[in-house]
């Protein structure tokens, strides 16, 4: 059974999310990939304001394709998350609570997630058109020069994701591998 959550993603909502849970997200989320993350951290280094408030926010690691006529957005499949790992702890420290992408995360990111009570979701790789259908509105927020990697504010309805790493550090990728290896014995 899917759990349904609506943003903002507060600690109260996060504590009920466990590795392996299927979740449908509705509300406001933001897009950002590595180029945008680099700029955000540079702003933090200069003690300047960010273009978005990170408190209780979810960032989707995506560079959507251009919208076709009559569509809000094009295909919107997840980007490999480790590309954001050198930046994520800084954003988690200032209130980021959820990240959506695909693939493993570094130990540093997992430790920062536990410290800051955050969660990592996996989106369905290879189903970019399906993911795009959950996006009801998309507005450019910052870094237009980055093209598809610009920061966008998305309004989503029932965006399907899976909790891969919960706020306690439980990791579905590791658990799945262990369960498989146990089944071979």
From TrEMBL:
One GO MF term: fumarate hydratase activity
Biological classification of the source: Bacteria, Bacillati, Bacillota, Clostridia, Eubacteriales
Domain Fe-S hydro-lyase tartrate dehydratase beta-type catalytic: 6-175
InterPro entries documented for this protein: Fe-S_hydro-lyase_TtdB-typ_cat, Fe-S_hydroAse_TtdB_cat_sf
NCBIfam families xref list: PRK06842.1, ttdB_fumA_fumB
Family the entry assigns: Belongs to the class-I fumarase family.
Key words, A-Z: Lyase
EC number from the UniProt entry: 4.2.1.2
Gene: fumA
Regions that span the bilayer: none
Name recorded for this polypeptide: Fumarate hydratase class I, aerobic
